[in-house]
């Protein structure tokens, strides 16, 4: 029996992670979520009051709009959740093969249990976390890509458990008996190289067998899953603020009318006229109860001032408007045959409000493996112990010190096959592939690994064989990797390559200086640099290293620490051979996009894991830093490594804070991860609680900020820090890998870049675009227009409802505060649902007050709507006063018309329902024509809904008043509308009142056009901020010197 040192208990399946609802909880949970909105809950209360209390209007007037809003919103949310369920089922219901009784059994992936032996074939995804038992490869290896986990499309090598590599058939693997224990008696040790994670994909290997150790919510993918927090846009917050104002207006109106009613009824004749005596029950009712009931009745009468239908219109506008982003042909990428993707339609308008964003400029994922001539040669060692030709030693090191594998013939995803070569290089690092191809260009070709022998062809076309004894894999702490090989003559060699900071301390110091000059120069020019070293081992030294490595690999306690110590001891006293340089190419139009974001008033922050010199050069290349920009540096180099580093940091912060207030000079800030840790997590006794405040003030004064050597957690911390600053700026993050997910989820708006790499970032983002350059149109055009549209929609809804209810309020002063409705119940119900809803919906989807080409080419226009400019209190008050003015015109204009007791030639007198219908007719035509005046971009659909809505109102009024409806108790609107239009005075009054109501708006438009012609200047605005993580597509080069 074999005992594996891992622990896994319980039988877990793969539950869906993303859906919010199930079939059973959808109705109660969705209703709960919807009635958390203040407007929905308010209308529910009003509806219940109408049902319980004798109110002047029918419960249908509130219940039908509320039912419509709840139903449409539920359908939208149910559809979006169904899509999430479908996406989960594609994974959970996929078929896998499990070995049972020496036979393959087909199962759904969600039914895999811990202990099942699973067979996975090439290009299939691992359905759970597996311990790698055996492979179709004789050496017990397999290659996987983790694109969906960490954005890396390069191949990673995994190794089967040593004692199970021979079990490579169904019959053999079925004989395995093993125990997974918490406290093993210990026979085998397992490491990360034996673990195959759920979500990774098997590549370049026909099949593998693995035992399920973690399934369902216990897999690493599930444990790392970070649920999306509910993001609310600035527009929604403004709506809630305006809603409170209108709720106060409603309460004020109801209070005034209730008070004046009892003042009016203080006169006995008014309280109980001879023609309307009170019943005994009414006389015995407590006065306080009557006052409360009257207050509720007035609340019901005026409740339409709260625009509940606005919510469903906003939902439809966001949902339908998101398709315009997906349909944008200019944001379609021919290379990956995909366009932009909208995952969260609730934040469309937020794209036009970015004031501080975190924009991650990502690697394209493509690697150009051709070796370029070095811009400056990298030095070789003064003398080489192995032979006269140091150049050949350098090239041999590049051919041997790597983890590159050979794949025959096929084109591999994310890799570029050489047209003249019948094989393709695959590796976990694109740099390694490029360096191996570069060595091939100079005569040394890596031919592959076979039976632990590495074959290379030298410049003389001779094949050299090297036995691969050990690979000391790269890790981010050591920042280097090594191989130990035996030559055909029996010599033992160690080759090592890594970052200059990890290689220089381990070589002869007299060999460093010349190479260091070239490395620093290449780093300043934007190249990623690696140094290459070697040493010769004796048999005795190798035996000791081999024994120590095997002991460390078998250790069950502190294995990683023991391995690190052996690596550290082995990679010492080496000789420096030379250095390589890797050139990073920026994505197309990246610099132009960043310039446009700057011109739009945004500040751009770069968050990257690269070292400072490389990141700084990239920032200059993408024009984030200008030659005139003075750089303020907060790094380990300036702060120092002494015990006083926190004091030194405080001094630098104060110095830079004083500098940054100089208006005549542009500043850029550079900070690294270690210094950021001191600022965000100061020691308790440092007295540095204000570090963060000073640092943030400096950042906001700089035109750009570069954060290098950043960990994923630090990226999210920076975004959170900026989000919580005074003024709550809108943040945006954009990245392409799983390491960017936490930052994308933290920002107000998260954008993922699809590219050719993993889709973890794009799946967790609110929006996904194929290339970084598409961010320009997404923000400057789509974001700008979406914000303008929805801001106008919100203001228009409050305005038209105030126009609607103000005449009803004024009418109470002329009817003894009797709660008599001014409008018919059908008009009350259909005003927001049918008569005025479609024109504003079409406007909010199609309006282009400025053409898209102009918005894209002139980024400064973005600043005109930044900081939620159209939903501030000043424009809100303008719309409110405009609604109040027009409501006064509607009511008193018709009131003065009715001063003439006879409006017909035959002397007949119009009644109160005719009065209300005239007011309502003027209202519908005025608010609709107001929207027509605001429309700058006319389409056939605008014409259809605007003029069609007016025609529908006229048709409905004729139809509603032309039939005696059997289900109505009173036929109060019978023939009213048709009779009203027989009066010439009514026609003239309607036309005149519409013109008077719209005259201020017409005058304002004329004056605005004159002003724009005289002053062709754009207003300046406060700056905004965007952050970025710098990554790029790579072109690799290397060199050596004689």
TrEMBL record:
Location of the protein in the cell: Cell membrane; Early endosome; Endoplasmic reticulum membrane; Membrane
Cellular component terms per the entry's GO annotation: early endosome; endoplasmic reticulum membrane; plasma membrane; recycling endosome
Binding site for ATP: 356, 432, 474, 497, 528, 608-610, 709, 715, 739-740
Domain P-type ATPase A per the UniProt entry, residue ranges: 92-221
Reaction(s) catalysed by this chain's protein: a 1,2-diacyl-sn-glycero-3-phospho-L-serine(out) + ATP + H2O = a 1,2-diacyl-sn-glycero-3-phospho-L-serine(in) + ADP + phosphate + H(+); ATP + H2O + phospholipidSide 1 = ADP + phosphate + phospholipidSide 2; a 1,2-diacyl-sn-glycero-3-phosphoethanolamine(out) + ATP + H2O = a 1,2-diacyl-sn-glycero-3-phosphoethanolamine(in) + ADP + phosphate + H(+)
Name of the coding gene: ATP11C
Enzyme class of the recorded protein, top EC level: translocase
Name used for this protein in its record: Phospholipid-transporting ATPase
Any one GO molecular function term: magnesium ion binding
Native organism: Cyanistes caeruleus
Named cofactor requirement(s): Mg(2+)
